[in-house]
Amino acid sequence: MKKSILPTILFALILAGCSTPLTAAVESDQHGNANGNDTDELWSPKYMVENFKRVGGTEISPDGEWIAFTVSEPRTEGERSDFLTHIHLVTSDGSRQFQLTRGDESASNPQWAPAGTYLSFTSTRGGDGNQIWMIDPMGGEAWQATEAEGSVGRYQWSRSGDRIAFTMVDPPTDEDKARQRERRDVNVVDEDLRYAHIYTVAIDPKQAKPGDIQRITAGEFHVGSFDWSPDDETIVFDHQPRPGTEYWPQTSISTVPSDSGTVELLVDLGGRDASPLYSPDGRYLAFISDRGDPRWPGYDVIMVKNLADGSMSNPGETFDDRPMLLEWSPDGSEIYYMERHKTSMDLFAMPAAGGAYRQVTEGAGMFFGFSLSADGSRLAAIHQDFAVAPDIIVSDVPAFDPVRLTHINEGYEQTEIVRAEVISYESYDGLEIESVLIYPLDYEEGNQYPVLLHVHGGPTGVFGESYVASPGVYPLQKFAAEGYFILRPNFRGSGGYGREFRFANVSDWGFGDLEDMKAGLDLLIEQGKVDPDRQAIMGWSYGGYMSSFAITRTDRFKASMVGAGVTNLVSFVGTADIPSFLPDYFEGDYWENYERFQRHSAIFNVENISTPTLILHPEQDVRVPPSQGYELYIALVRMGVDTKMVTYPRQPHGIREPKFIIDAAERQLEWLEKYVE
């Protein structure tokens, strides 16, 4: 069975931070805490963060009888502020479920050996970086399979099960270590790079000890995803010229003998060619390509290469033009992929020989974390919708009929889950916009309530039919319990609605997309649901951009909460880790059209701001550097606008530590109480 992972989305959420954790729950007493955790406040951020468990992706056994998945629990006692992840197992009929791994170090990325007798996973439990470990799922102690000098990245079993291939970033050399000890460790920008390369390790469960490691690739290129050929003789992989998200437009596909040797270029269409997958018979290669036209909003297709004659074809269009490959069907007739589907995430199948795609998953909510049994007859996944937290489901593939196997957070819900729905309306120019609308917990028709405009990141992110009571920086269930409507629009530029819609805000940030949002707010006001004098805006990354820029164009918002937002498009280009991002979106560099970059920046229009503004920013953010937040904060202070800036040590673009997640949520609630309620 091919290794199943949730594919990496390089740029769909390139400016989207603070993703909502994946959780599971069932109903509990409407007026009490079924967990027995004392709290004086229903749905407090502290309660939500500390009393739910995140559910990770599935890995179904080759025979389809067992499903491995991960559960992450917060640790906030004393000096701790992290999540501990362990692997759990459930039978496909739901009759048995148990936690497989234990200990103070996390275990994640489970994969079944091809024979289904062992389960591998990665962990830092050995104290020498992230390594591959093995365990008999029916009992016994785990043993370390790799003893690599660095940390293991991606990994995948060979078809025969006697080797595992993995990627590892070049570890520091002896000279590097000496330079650091002697304080000679200067960094030359764009030099002294450390690349990820492919290694293999021999696996012998009878020995139960680390196997011999062989380096397979070397050179000045950075390896991403890879796949074994059906005969295990070759590894196909995608690679870019250097590490870093900035270089995705130069991704190509090559092959290398699995015992090392000459690297041979296989696909280079001039842009991003990635995620290669061999067909079961080894005659074809499926991959994702932008066909030589790399653009940050994204337009990808599935391509199939005939490895005998070298011909390539696109078997058909997908719904959103952003497919993420999963695997081939066992008979080689179809290619499975996942893709955003308006407010859903679904699994699809594309005929390899060409034709219309087939939607595999059906129904309300979102499906993700897919894996398939070796014969392709059984599917495991994670499912959630507005009122049902993420849990493991299983279904036969020919006739999709999902059965829920787990109840990971039984007793988590303190009250009923608030009402949520997808609404549709026309924007100022007739463009149809979908939005998620979350109602106040105590909603009564005829009354007016305050509203929060929640702007997603990306801007190619999308608000889907996700569980409303998931905790995070934006605790939606808590906002609703405080009496707020929350409008979450999928404005022009969002993902999930096809290429044309996704490109509709090119060179137009903060104008057409803001009008889409205002049209939704105006509709709620017109319907008598929302008090026009109690509106606020919030968002992270691109949502932070909009939360800063919108208040330069309107004074309708009584409060703004800017999370890791881009505030100065000019300085962003020179300080972020993706300097080509904005020149692509604005069709030129800032020195070629300085006026355009100024027109769409909050900083160059800051004199128009009077809205009280809370700024939240991670200190280790290289995607949207903290200087973006400081520029806005200093300007507002000098202008006398009510403002506060809070920074979070150690955090990258999204806040990861649970104590900081609680803090950010609580500060926003306090800001709303002060300026909106």
Any overview of this molecule?
With 677 residues, this protein is an alpha+beta fold. It has a domain at 420-675: Alpha/Beta hydrolase fold, catalytic domain (Rossmann fold), CATH 3.40.50. Helix content is 14%, strand content 31%. The strands form eight sheets. The chain has an eight-stranded mixed β-sheet with strand order 30-31-33-32-34-35-36-37, sandwiched between helices. β16 and β17 form a beta hairpin.
Tell me, what is the CATH class of one domain?
Answer: Alpha Beta
Q: What is the CATH H-level superfamily of one domain? A: Alpha/Beta hydrolase fold, catalytic domain
**CATH architecture descriptor name of one domain:** 3-Layer(aba) Sandwich
Report, as a whole number of angstroms, the end-to-end distance.
55 Å
Describe the global form. Answer: globular
Query: Going across the major beta sheet, what is the strand order?
Result: 30-31-33-32-34-35-36-37
- Based on CA atoms alone, the radius of gyration comes out at 25 Å
Helical amount:
10-25%
Mean pLDDT: 93
Total E-strand runs:
37
Indicate the multimeric state: single chain
What's the number of helices? 11
Q: How would you classify the helix and strand content by structural class?
A: alpha+beta
Strand fraction equals 25-35%
Return the CATH topology of one domain.
Rossmann fold
